[in-house]
Amino acid sequence: MASPQRVEHQLTDKGQVPVYTTAVVEQPWDSYTATDHEVWRALFRRQRQLLEGRACQEFLDTQDAMGMGEDRIPKFVELNRQLQAKTGWTLIGVEGLLPELDFFDHLAHRRFPVTWWIRKPEQLDYLSEPDLFHDLFGHVPLLMNPVFADYMQAYGLGGVKAHGIGPEALAELTRLYWYTVEFGLINTPAGLRIYGAGIVSSKGESIHCLDSAAPNRIGFDLRRIMRTRYRIDTFQKTYFVIDSFDQLMQATAPDFRPYYAQLATEATIPAGDILASDTVFQRGTGEGWLTDGDV
Ligand code: PHE
Ligand code: FE
């Protein structure tokens, strides 16, 4: 494995100097085994096939455009050339989940942390923490899309701000990430499509989110989402549908401070609830839902 190498500390826009507690590592590409590459190939093949007609065209096109293929685990340095040219993002290798402020600061500087290791062959269907397949296959393609690329950076800047406000603001912002970046759906002339990384990297949820009668599918509503609890151990009870990445960008552009102040007076919403104010694409049957466990 490559020796861990610390990134340079940089001043954030808030004037803070983050002290990274987690090392950034060079992708130890030569250390991947034949089995690692085989796991990538199996997952890539399975998901790409499943996602034709399920993932939004932007996702499929950007994945192709950056040369992410099934033959072997991609090299970050090669993908970085494409990303740099297109939107100025850089992939950095990490061991796993980062402390919140570190993560936000990386995004704010257009650096996307990617877990360097890949799951084992017996974990193709489910893994409880992000690995290389989730991060790279799921999150990275849309960083080639100029609008989505800007959204991710704006989210990072918003995260640094929310972190300074307090844990409630942070929880509300995290719900937004969950229901867009991880589990978002988008409405297209051809029907609902997936753009969330947590969905595209999961076989079961790629099918469930579009085909199942169980979950709610509700139109994007920023402050409603920021109040909505979610699931980390089961498929989502509710998916939120955007009209376009431009809508996402515009809705999240205002300063969130007044929103945080107002949300502090409002109750959270259980993951499966539907409100009178919701634009409902589908009212879920709730089949198979657990009655507790919302985060
Ligand atoms: N506009 C938000 C703020 O002022 C930042 C943000 C942008 C958050 C995009 C999420 C997504 O806090
Ligand atoms: Fe993720």
Describe the structure.
The protein has helices at about 35-50, 55-65, 75-85, 100-110, 130-140, 145-165, 165-180, 195-200, 205-210, 220-225, 245-250, 255-265, and strands at about 25, 90-95, 110-115, 185-190, 190-195, 215-220, 240, 280. The chain is an alpha/beta fold and about 300 residues long. The chain has two domains: about 1-165, Orthogonal Bundle (Phenylalanine Hydroxylase), CATH 1.10.800; about 165-295, Phenylalanine Hydroxylase (Orthogonal Bundle). A five-stranded mixed beta sheet has the order 5-4-7-6-8. It is globular. The model is unreliable at about 1-15 (pLDDT under 50). The protein binds phenylalanine and fe (iii) ion. Phenylalanine binds near residues 154, 255 and 256. Fe (iii) ion binds near residues 130 and 198.
Summarize this structure briefly.
This protein is an alpha/beta fold and 295 residues long. The chain has helices at 34-51, 57-65, 76-86, 100-108, 132-139, 146-165, 167-182, 197-200, 203-211, 222-225, 245-251, 257-263, and strands spanning 24-25, 90-94, 111-115, 185-188, 191-194, 216-219, 238-242, 280-282. Helix 4 packs antiparallel against helix 6.
